[in-house]
Amino acid sequence: MKSATTFLMFQGQAHDAIEQYKQWFTDLTVENLTYMEDSQQVAMAVLNLKGLKIMVNDSVIKHDFTFTPATSIFVECETLEEIGNLAAQILEGGQALMPLDNYGFSKQFTWIADRFGVSWQLTYN
């Protein structure tokens, strides 16, 4: 096996998602980004978030499915301030599946579907 990578397939929102994620996560880098000819549709992008590679594209084929909360990106925050700020930003236009709180297994934890439908689990211990 050469590699295994998280892959997020959007339907026309990949560019906006990448721009949003760059604002939320200052450590996120865009390693590669190509657009479809004469458009803002992402042909393929490779993001790196603290060593997690995430491939992103816009599907040229319309699908009846989208993201599911059963698959999420898990982020361990370093401070209470960081988790609070990230949670507030991701929640804008999104939906809290588990509001920020102490659930026993984490001092602070939240599970949020962002405005694009991608699920994020944030934890602080």
If you had to describe this structure to a student in words, what would you say it looks like?
The chain is α/β, with parallel strands linked by helices and 125 residues long. 18% of the residues lie in helices and 42% in strands. It contains two helices and eight strands. The strands form two sheets. A four-stranded mixed β-sheet has the order 1-4-3-2, with helices on one face. Strand 7 (108-113) and strand 8 (119-124) form a beta hairpin. The chain is globular, with a radius of gyration of 15 Å.
Quick rundown:
The protein has helices at residues 14-24, 80-91, and strands at residues 6-10, 28-35, 42-49, 52-58, 72-76, 95-101, 108-113, 119-124. The chain is globular. It has 125 residues and is an alpha/beta fold.
Features:
single chain; 125 residues; alpha/beta; Signal recognition particle alu RNA binding heterodimer, srp9/1; 4-stranded mixed sheet; 18% helix; 42% strand
Report how far the terminal alpha carbons are from each other. 34 Å
Q: What low-confidence regions span 5 or more consecutive residues with pLDDT below 50?
A: none
Nearest-integer average pLDDT? 97
Number of domains: 2
Largest sheet, strands/sense/barrel: 4 strands, mixed
Percent of residues in helices:
10-25%
Measured on Cα atoms, how large is the radius of gyration?
15 Å
What is the name of the CATH topology of the largest domain? Signal recognition particle alu RNA binding heterodimer, srp9/1
| Total count of helical runs of at least 4 residues | 2
Binned strand content? 35-45%
Instruction: Give the strand line-up of the largest sheet.
Output: 1-4-3-2
Q: How would you sum up the global shape?
A: globular
* Class by SSE composition: alpha/beta
What is the CATH architecture descriptor of the largest domain? 2-Layer Sandwich
CATH top level assignment of the largest domain: Alpha Beta
Give the ordered list of helices and strands.
EHEEEEHEEE
Q: How many strands appear in the DSSP assignment?
A: 8
